[in-house]
């Protein structure tokens, strides 16, 4: 099987490793074979503490998940800002009149239409 392992240690610094592993292998096997654990020695500890999480094609999984051919194993960093809070702050900064449904108002129309 051909598997891609992806990790971004910092913003805009994504790295990928292409790994060829036998059928029936797990996510943990792919991580070990890829060399990501040796390239970034702190990943093992952060995964054990629950700081980092794993996923396959954007869906969370565990290290014992069995892979299929062409899967993409991803290692996720924690979010620095809650997306809801960030959106609320952007909206507050732009102002009600210039954002979202209120950006364009028809002549004589009601607010939000």
| Share of residues in helices | 25-40%
Distance between the termini: 53 Å
CATH class of the domain at 2-76, named Alpha Beta
Q: Helix/strand-derived class?
A: alpha+beta
Count, helices = 4
Tell me what the CATH architecture of the domain at 2-76 is.
Answer: Roll
Radius of gyration over C-alpha positions, nearest whole angstrom: 21 Å
Which sequence of SSEs, written as H and E, runs from N to C? Answer: EEHHHEEEH
| Portion in beta strands | 15-25%
CATH fold naming of the domain at 2-76: Ubiquitin-like (UB roll)
| Parts with pLDDT < 50 across at least 5 consecutive residues | none
Adjacency order of strands in the biggest sheet: 2-1-5-3-4
What's the main sheet like? 5 strands, mixed
The backbone outline, from C-alpha atoms, is: elongated
User: Could you name the CATH homologous superfamily of the domain at 2-76?
Assistant: Beta-grasp domain
Number of strands: 5
The gist of it:
The chain is 27% helix and 21% strand. It is of the alpha+beta class. The longest helix is centred in the C-terminal third of the chain and has 12 residues, at 83-94.
Notes on the protein architecture:
This protein has helices at residues 27-34, 36-39, 43-49, 83-94; strands at residues 2-7, 15-20, 53-56, 59-61, 72-76. Helix content is 27%, strand content 21%. By secondary structure, the protein is of the alpha+beta class. The mean pLDDT is 85. It has a domain at 2-76: Ubiquitin-like (UB roll) (Roll). Strands 2-1-5-3-4 form a 5-stranded mixed sheet, covered by helices on one side. The protein is elongated, with a radius of gyration of 21 Å. A hairpin with a 7-residue loop joins strand 1 (2-7) and strand 2.
């Amino acid at each position: 099987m051909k598997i891609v392992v992806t990790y971004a240690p910092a913003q805009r610094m994504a790295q990928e490793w292409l790994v060829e592993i036998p059928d029936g292998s797990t996510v943990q096997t792919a991580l070990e074979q890829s060399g990501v654990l040796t390239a970034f020695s702190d990943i093992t500890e952060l995964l054990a503490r629950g700081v980092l999480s794993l996923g396959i094609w954007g869906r969370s999984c565990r290290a014992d998940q069995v892979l299929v051919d062409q899967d993409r194993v991803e290692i996720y960093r924690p979010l620095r800002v809650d997306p809801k809070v960030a959106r609320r702050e952007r909206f507050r900064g732009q102002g009600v009149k210039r954002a979202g449904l209120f950006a364009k108002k028809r002549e004589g129309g009601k607010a939000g239409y």
